[in-house]
Queue: 2 jobs
Job 1
Amino acid sequence: MLKENQEFTSIIFEPMGRRIKVKLGDNILRSALRSGIGIRNECGGIFGKCGKCKIIIKDQSNLNSPTKVERELLGESELKKGYRLACQSIIRGEVRVFVPEESKIRKRRLQIFGIKREVRLKPTIKKLHIKIPHPSIQDNRSDVERITSTIKEVYNIHELKFNLEVLRELPKIARDANWDLTITLMDDGTVISVEPRDTTNSLYGVAIDLGTSKIVASLIDLINGNLIMSNGFDNPQVIYGEDIISRITYAAIGKEQLDELKRLAVEGVNSIVTDLCKAANVDINNVYEIVLVGNTVMHHLFLGLETKYLGLSPYVPVINDQLNLRANELNIQINNGGRVYLPPVIAGFIGSDNTADLLSTNFYEIEDMSLMIDLGTNTEINLGNKDEILCCSCASGPAFEGGHIKHGMKAVEGAIEKVSINHQTYEAHYKTIGGLRPIGICGSAMIDLLAEMLKCGLIDNRGRYRNEVKTPRLRKGEFGYEYVVAWFNETDIGEDIVITQTDIAELQLAKAAIYCGCRILMKRKGIETRDIKKVFIAGAFGGYINLNNAKIIGLIPDVPTERIEFVGNAALSGAEILLKSKELRKDLKNILKKVKYVELGAQPDFNEEFLSALPFPHLKKELFPSVINLINTH
Amino acid sequence: MLKENQEFTSIIFEPMGRRIKVKLGDNILRSALRSGIGIRNECGGIFGKCGKCKIIIKDQSNLNSPTKVERELLGESELKKGYRLACQSIIRGEVRVFVPEESKIRKRRLQIFGIKREVRLKPTIKKLHIKIPHPSIQDNRSDVERITSTIKEVYNIHELKFNLEVLRELPKIARDANWDLTITLMDDGTVISVEPRDTTNSLYGVAIDLGTSKIVASLIDLINGNLIMSNGFDNPQVIYGEDIISRITYAAIGKEQLDELKRLAVEGVNSIVTDLCKAANVDINNVYEIVLVGNTVMHHLFLGLETKYLGLSPYVPVINDQLNLRANELNIQINNGGRVYLPPVIAGFIGSDNTADLLSTNFYEIEDMSLMIDLGTNTEINLGNKDEILCCSCASGPAFEGGHIKHGMKAVEGAIEKVSINHQTYEAHYKTIGGLRPIGICGSAMIDLLAEMLKCGLIDNRGRYRNEVKTPRLRKGEFGYEYVVAWFNETDIGEDIVITQTDIAELQLAKAAIYCGCRILMKRKGIETRDIKKVFIAGAFGGYINLNNAKIIGLIPDVPTERIEFVGNAALSGAEILLKSKELRKDLKNILKKVKYVELGAQPDFNEEFLSALPFPHLKKELFPSVINLINTH
């Protein structure tokens, strides 16, 4: 037995067998995350809201009793089995915690590659090799004057400015190198680095898409424009919640919390840059610039800007202009004089990732009427062409990423990613990521499930289960009717994987939000679906969805499949282009003048359009002529 | 008795009665300075060279034996009395140290006020008060866009850039103040501060002259241009040596030492600014800019730039261009977005204080041929007019500031500042600063002494004592002949205050260096003394010297006294002007184009001119027609 005044105890996590030291009175989720043990917590673990941090504790004598929240979210049968929510479980002494598969944070399928657009290589940073006359009693100009006049002579560049850090190391470097130097120069004439001898063939940059859950990055050789390597890491901020609203809520607690999220974002960026450089055998001091894009919340958190007002109507950012900052001012560890460029964000929920999307697809130069949908918790939609682009953000919610769905999960290993249902037997056939035993359902499979259930008549066009269909897979569960996608003995979680009536309702809200966004933009533009000549689908799970099924459920407008192109991580591609082309950066201001933000909440027809988009595929069947006949209406 | 392995002991300083803890093996000087006990150390205490850190220790059983250096510098009689040099005394256990008056660092007479020139008030920083429309669902522009467009509308200013720090605090300030804000703007459109409500009448700047031994500063109200208050502090770097070469030598040891001198300079500036603000009841956050001038070594040390090469031929600075830096990048504690402006330096030994001198005297716009001498350890000389200005720096050395002179000292309380000698009796009459009992001789009195001794024939025009003069005041001492200025019973140091043959030689070198500088500039310009229509004498001790005596010894050219003006701390005045006038800053580049630096060491006639300037007043008597007859040649 532990004494009352003992401050620490240890808990053991199974099946990993890890023992960690924890404070009495702390909750299990926070203790686990602090020790690097990944337990899902889509809500950020500070609300007891998402119900994803399920753990199993057989001997609960050293824990508090289940809370009201746990009783509501877990249901009687799970409580009986020893299920608890880690965020609600207060440690009173030694406990042994079992982390079931469905609660583990797993390796995600990574969408790094995106559409590639060629641009003329003209980075903002260049290197000049110079040999400078030595100082003498006849020529006692200052070190800076000596360099400046040589550069003027040889390269015809006037008006240099020197960073203080450069001035501090210049005298020694210059003399050690016998005045044989390489000068690294910003576009505006700022000298950001001085290196001994000729290093003009070592000039690198990193493009980064700082996503809510993932940071993906590309290391680019700025001498020839080649992509050397890309990689993706989890955003370390996920320990404070997997969705953006959790981050806003956490940061709103106070400066300390905001700074913590900033620190984590910076740490994440530093890790991925270090990792890329190591893997590619590139000296990190030869990385001179980072171009970073992201949604507006990530953009603000990375900079340490208040995100509170991004979460409150009218959702205004602090700044939307581009920023060109010193890396060391942001604690970003590249070359000491290095820079971080952040292209403009467009609105509170349209970030610089959307700006980058427009660049990599060349959206703003297309003649034909085009649509781009970047699917995510917030789905950004752009509609237009070279003359004008309307854009909006839909609060599509985390349903397609696994949030608020009983067995929903992100596209990590073990997730069911494809499903078909036999129209006679109502049996399900599925495929998981990595071919593992299933532990849940990810977004692409949810689209399949809904479409298949519509096609075989398991649900009606309002999304309600038809209880007259006779199959053991359709049954009444704790949360209303549910369809069994995988039986417990096939899974790795020891229970049936189902999709419930409530889940369907959540998915309906999500798809309605997205389609409603498309529809309102079309109306504001005065066009119909048939006028759309080109559709780009971007985003992490974009490449894996079945387009026909997406049209059947009314997630995307009924545009012929051959006009639809998956562009993958178009945001990262856009960041890469911005790294390579200073001309494009200059054009940005004019490009973005074409972009008009449409605040959906302020549109008078928003409610009507949203409600009309709830049925499958839509209240107005005529909007989906190519798929409407596939739906089994009995 | 102390055990061998005991690491610390204590020493007691008298007459203060302070006990401090010290490390065994440390020297007394370093230990004292570290504890804030001021002991003179003109050489920086790392050479055992200046002999100024004399202390008396009666019981020397816990000390090392006197070193070779001590035996040379102190002489037998002093050693017998228990004199030691603090820098040479190694602590082996408890000791009781007596610090004699002449070794104490005392309050200096301060030259803060200088010539005042009127300029049109147009600071680089301005404040704008704006009332901004609140965000709404119909107007969801970002905070920055909202401010930018209001400023564009109301003040017709385009293209603002926001500091990251401002962006971080903007959302809260704006909402707390109900969008009633004051924006502080740099000339280049950078927003450096955002404050709630109307603060447009609180806008201050500080002008600073960072001298080798003193930091003097003025607090200026930038709304009306008024000087609110000036003050002066010791430069905290003096603990590492009182002259500039000691600082260069200390900084050359390594980065740690350079950084320590930087830290001390920054600390000194922060102290004086804080102090001025407190005394004037001004919120330090309403100080937005500092203009700092100083010699090139101080300029470099303040910025943390390598000073090593300023001490080695060809004495090149790292940079001579003007710099406009963020205060927080330099750890200067004013408004968080505040700036520090440093005008250009001219050469390794011609700093931005000389630039400021030229501005405050309007030297570069004068029609008549003019001369400016800024007296100090390095004496800067400018000769010219609106068309061209030649300038040079003379290594006049510390003699006139007390260095290398047996009883020499700075102009602090107790220093003899004026002397006359009766031509019949050879008796000396003196006046001390503060009317205290004398403890040494400062520069102005040294000029008087030399001139008086020349007039009454105590020395010849080569500076040699005439031993045929019969007076008890002229006697043979340990270092050759010496003249007693004050008998021991009149002084506060318990010994006679004398001027030795060696002292005279030192002063001769100093005055020859200065005159030689003037002479070479005149020759390069092709003019004679009679062509000089105006002379400015600047510098700390300038205002206190007897001009006729200065001419008798040949320190300054023989220009009629009515053409000579004391301009005091012209450098601080110049810094004040630069704080008030952004136009003058813009003109600086063109003004400095008129200034040609003459490297004396590189002049073929330097040696000849220097040697000719050694006799009193000069080898060529015709150069000093107005005073030559005052000298008693027997």
Job 2
Amino acid sequence: MTENNRCVVLLSGGIDSAVAAAIARSQGFEIYALTVDYGQKHKFEIEAAKKIAKFLGAVKHRILQVPFGELAKSALTKSEIEVPKDRGELERVGDIPATYVPARNTIFLALAASWAESLDAGYIFVGFNVIDYSGYPDCRPEFVEAFEKVLAVGTKAGVDGKSIKIRAPLLMSKKSEIIKLGQNLGVDFSLTFSCYDPTPDGTPCGHCDSCLIRKRAFAEVGMDDPPLKK
Amino acid sequence: MTENNRCVVLLSGGIDSAVAAAIARSQGFEIYALTVDYGQKHKFEIEAAKKIAKFLGAVKHRILQVPFGELAKSALTKSEIEVPKDRGELERVGDIPATYVPARNTIFLALAASWAESLDAGYIFVGFNVIDYSGYPDCRPEFVEAFEKVLAVGTKAGVDGKSIKIRAPLLMSKKSEIIKLGQNLGVDFSLTFSCYDPTPDGTPCGHCDSCLIRKRAFAEVGMDDPPLKK
């Protein structure tokens, strides 16, 4: 194992990654936060990520411009593909929606791994979760496990017997549980941004899957979703 | 399987990926070439990749600016780390040298996968090889196999039963065999660029691992290494 307490955290600007980062901090890790600007329509999440990184005391926060949105066909990257709105809960089960971005989390983890290996950090923290999510295949336990295997055989760290591990502490949590956990860890949710399709001034649409899941989860825990701090 | 004959080829500008692309073409694939500008010292390889893509009749060639060299500690990305020179053959065996770039091929394959999935392409061609190489862990068969598993479980294509496959036709070839194969396929090696540490005007150093391996391989097949077309 490495002898430092560094970890790389993939920080999107949303609730899940903010809570994952707070968990890393609570476990004594130093946070090296990584946010990827890939050409997403919801660029406001990057501003949110900056505030969250600062709030959580990240040692560094890198925002990497990786314009793979030019290559990736998705409702989150292409203006000609609309973000689905007001989908019922049943529609969101067992379906991969148009907001899926091909290989996005594979790219994110690969970039995080490059930084982690360069920092001699032993862990990458992510906010992936498979419950109350949008049906993306790259948020599942089998994906995380397969990617860890890539790091074990495909990096110098792995060959040297100190393979980088992925910590996905929210993988099996419901969104409402994530909110409660974050609340206990002091996460300021007014810094987080979830909407896939905000108005030009950054107001959440309230109708995309991500807005709907957020709304329902706050209702479940009986909390008000605090207005976004701009 | 997909119904088109598209493939994404990771094209670095060197010999191996040029020959891998020529193999794809000879098998009837349409080439979508991807080159990553990651902040490498040897930027001349990108110019070489452009010429190779054109020479091989690529349908498209995308050069993606992905500045992960800022994060990745390597002799290929950091001016303060020198590219090793004149290492003997024995020094190059079983050792991972300073020119290893953390998680580079993982990042490259992830980006290629995003494009392949968006194109509905079934294959990614790469020039990785494990013989006569620089000892990088992310050029080995076990790495390719692990990454295919990531694509099987972490992409929509995989979930839909048309998982993207990685073709690494040179994985177990000696560099001299790769050159012979390329020659038979009509590859113009004067378009390729191998040096890790060229002079500012793009002249290969002749002393880095990559130059030494290239020089020896051309000598083995009894061919002159043609001067670089600029």
